[in-house]
Each structure stands twice: as C-alpha cells, then as structure tokens.
Amino acid sequence: MDCQEEQLVNTICGLYEKISKLESLKPSEDVNILFSQLVSTCIPPNPNIDVTKMCDTVQETRQKLIKICGEAEGHLEHHFSSILTSFEDNPLHHLNIFPYYNNYIKLGKLEFDLLTQNLNGLVPKTIAFVGSGPLPLTSIVLASSHLKETVFHNFDIDASANSLASLLVSSDPDISQRMFFHTVDIMEVTESLKSFDVVFLAALVGMNKEDKVRVIEHLQKHMAPGAVLMLRSAHGPRAFLYPIVEPCDLQGFEVLSIYHPTDDVINSVVISKKLPVVSNGNIVGGPSCLLMSCNCSKIHAIMNKNKSMMIEELGVTEKQFS
C-alpha cells in the first residue's frame, strides 16, 4: 500500500475501534456521527485498493466491521419502519424520511436498467428478494416505479422484520396486493425458488465468503434455468462495509456484468443468469427462455450516459466512465 492507502485504512480501522466500543448500535447521535464518518471515508472510489490482499489483521477488522454494519443497518431500518407505520395515511408516501432513501431510488433505477437490457423483451412476473428486512425499499421502489405489474415475494428469517414490512405496505391498495412476506431461512426454500423469474440477494445475506457462497450454491441448485440472479457486492474501500461477490463465487451461473457505482450509491451490482443443466448432452429442465445473451454494446451505451459508473465485463478490462 502507498501512504495514501495506508492512511485510509488506518482511518477506517480507527473508526472501527470507536464503533466497537459503543454500548448500542441503535440510532443515536454518537452512532449516527460515527457511521456517517465511516461511510464518507469509504465511499470515494479507489479501484486500486484491493481489500482481499491486505494483511490478516486488516482482514479480521474488515470482517468484524461488516458484521457491525449489518447489525447497525438492521437497527436503522427497524427504527424508521416503526416510525413510518405510525403514519395514519399511507406510510409509503413518507419514505423520504429515511436518510438513505435517495440511494435506494438510484440503485433501483440502476438495477431496473440492467434487467431491461438483459431480459428477452419480457417483464418479470415474479421476483424474490432474499433478505428484505423491516424496510424492503428495493422491492417497494421497483414495484411502485418500475415493475408495476410484477409480484414480489420477500424472504427474511426475522419474523419481526416481516411483521413491520407487511404493516408498512398494507395501506397501499396496489403494492399490498403484489407484495408478500415469508418468514423462513432461504436455505430451507427449495421447490418454490423455481417459480421466480428474478431472485435478488441482499448484500448482507451471508456476511462472510463461506456463508455467501453457500447461499449462492443453494440458489443455483433450486432456481429455474435461465432465471436471473442479481446480487450486491462492493468495490475498493466500500468492501469494508459490505462483502465482495466475485465471478468465481457464481458457479453454475453466467455472469453478465458487474457495475461499480462511483457516486453515493455504495453497492456494486452483479447480474447473472442460471445456466441450464446438461446431462448426457441434453438440457435438463428446459432451455433458458427468460434471458437473452448479453448484448454488451447496448449495456455499454446505456451505462455510458451515466457518468457515475464503472463497468466490468468478463473478458474486458474494467472501465471507469469519467
């Protein structure tokens, strides 16, 4: 690491030490200040930093920090979902009180654009979101702004999270009819996974490499051939906040593109499709009918309009649009 990178890592590790000494990770002035400092430190794009190659001590701190960030994010979403459900009118009309709502608007638009470019002229009828939490903003943004006829099934292991999320959408006459919540460990869901055109995997489902890969392997085993798997990853210093998903983690999927935002949207987006199972020269389970081949020229054209993106294509050198 050069001096600048070393200083950045030292700053992040110093913030971890302060955060780890907090009595609680629930929203408070101290929690908000420290996590705001952490995010503002990690968010400037620095593609030269590869956190996977750092020393064991830094790697250990990174894993602890990801876990802490996941816990704090859960508390934050629970806090604001509780506030939103207290509104007498439709709570979805007040989503802008959530401090990161605009980030979800941008991320939802990005993910919708990726789907639009890769789906074979079809609008997905059913989408599963794994790890939806008490404030399922991705599903809500997509359902209300982009996919207005699609049915969303949200999966979370936490019953209290699903209870809040269900209450949140219950007053909306449209969304409440197209959004369902399931309290279950996704590792116990098998046959029903075949019914989804698209599966989203939240960034904090599987907070270390081993757990993440186990979930991906489970989805690969049970998703329909040709179905889309969209995952969130992280790049550069942002990988101190969220786990990294690499192409080698997606065995049995064709990775189409990996997008690295360079604005205030933190998560990278990985889009892939499940490959058909071939046995004795025959395709098992039917050919891929939902997803067409990746048309890189179209994707590059769309993303080139957005100057705040980096794009990575397999076999193509990573590019940054500036």
Automatic annotation (TrEMBL):
Record bears the keyword S-adenosyl-L-methionine: yes
Gene3D superfamilies noted in UniProt: Vaccinia Virus protein VP39 (3.40.50.150)
Keyword S-adenosyl-L-methionine: yes
Database matches in InterPro entries: Nicotian_synth, SAM-dependent_MTases_sf
Enzyme class: transferase
Function per UniProt: Synthesizes nicotianamine, a polyamine which serves as a sensor for the physiological iron status within the plant, and/or might be involved in the transport of iron.
Protein name, per record: Nicotianamine synthase
Organism in which the protein naturally occurs: Raphanus sativus (Radish)
Gene that this sequence comes from: LOC108845407
